[in-house]
């Protein structure tokens, strides 16, 4: 209970900042994904016929649940790189927090709680807009909200641990170019991964994006089986837990007083 209460103080700190500065992030958080949906779903999608590979859905309906997951992953990447380094080195907010009875692990838990809430909010707003635009294949798209947030956390937690070890932000550019971008393009969001070369598939299966997209799209189409769903969720939870454990280790090492 003490840990939860202390972590909540960290969450409140982020919420206080966000209430005053939400306008600075609204475009990247909510508007950009909607533009992708309009351009690719309505524009490019109008030239794509519904086939068996798309599960009988229109391309717009095929794309929408995957974009929920991709939106969460992109948001998780931004929240887990520069924001973490800033709190350690530039704004030094973590330093100030551990000067109180709050421990380094509780600082991390508060940060993860905040990122998780952000991912849920972004996913929910996107699903509502997609439904209004007619991009929802059915009520199952609501499952894209928790599945998108879970996939985002599975990528965010290890990334926070990695960011906590760095002294310079130089390698973040590499992550954006060579991890986030390929994960966005080649994990099934825009076309079935069965169209990729077979040698690339094991790499795709390791990404949280593929597991999240399989969950969200399967739920939206009503084709998600219980056993595959359990396997995808277990993998994402394991990634999150491993990242959190590493994060606790590096936060304690860096914030030790």
Structure commentary:
- The protein has helices at 2-21, 26-43, 59-79, 82-90, 93-98, 104-132, 144-163, 170-185, 201-206, 208-221, 226-255.
- The protein is mainly alpha-helical.
- The protein has one domain (32-45, 63-255).
- Helix 6 (104-132) runs antiparallel to helix 11 (226-255).
- The longest helix has 30 residues, at 226-255.
- The chain is globular and about 60 Å long.
- 41% of the residues are buried.
- It comes from Lentzea guizhouensis.
- Belongs to the ABC-2 integral membrane protein family.
- The chain crosses the membrane at residues 21-42, 62-85, 119-137, 143-162, 174-193, 233-251.
Number of helices: 11
- Radius of gyration equals 19 Å
**Could you report the average pLDDT, rounded to the nearest whole number?**
91
How much beta, percentage-wise?
under 5%
Q: Mind describing the biggest β-sheet?
A: none
Which secondary structure elements does this structure contain, and how are they paired or packed?
Blueprint: H1 2-21, H2 26-43, H3 59-79, H4 82-90, H5 93-98, H6 104-132, H7 144-163, H8 170-185, H9 201-206, H10 208-221, H11 226-255
Short description:
The protein is mainly alpha-helical and 257 residues long. It has one domain. The protein has eleven helices and no strands.
Keywords:
11 helices, mainly alpha, 0% strand, cell membrane, transmembrane, ABC-type transporter activity, Nod_factor_ABC_transporter, 257 residues, ABC2_TM_bact-type, globular
């Amino acid at each position: 209970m003490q840990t939860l209460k202390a972590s909540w103080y960290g969450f409140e700190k982020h919420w206080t900042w966000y209430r005053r500065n939400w306008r600075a992030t609204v475009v990247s958080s909510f508007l950009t994904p909607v533009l992708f949906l309009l351009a690719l779903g309505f524009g490019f999608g109008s030239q794509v016929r519904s086939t068996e590979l798309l599960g009988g859905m229109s391309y717009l309906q095929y794309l929408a649940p995957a974009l929920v997951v991709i939106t969460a992953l992109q948001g998780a990447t931004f929240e887990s790189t520069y924001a973490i380094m800033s709190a350690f080195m530039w704004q030094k907010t973590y330093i100030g927090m551990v000067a109180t009875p709050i421990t380094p692990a509780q600082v991390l838990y508060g940060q993860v709680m905040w990122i998780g809430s952000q991912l849920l909010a972004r996913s929910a707003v996107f699903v509502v807009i997609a439904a209004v635009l007619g991009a929802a294949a059915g009520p199952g798209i609501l499952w894209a909200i928790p599945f998108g947030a879970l996939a985002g956390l599975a990528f965010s937690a290890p990334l926070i641990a990695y960011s906590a070890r760095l002294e310079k932000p130089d390698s973040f550019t590499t992550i954006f170019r060579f991890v986030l971008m390929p994960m966005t393009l080649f994990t099934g969001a825009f076309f079935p991964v069965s169209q990729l070369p077979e040698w690339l598939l094991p790499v795709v299966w390791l990404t949280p994006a593929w597991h999240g997209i399989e969950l969200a799209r399967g739920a939206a189409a009503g084709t998600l089986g219980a056993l595959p769903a359990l396997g995808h969720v277990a993998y994402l939870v394991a990634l999150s837990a491993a990242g959190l454990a590493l994060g606790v280790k590096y936060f304690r090492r860096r914030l030790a007083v």
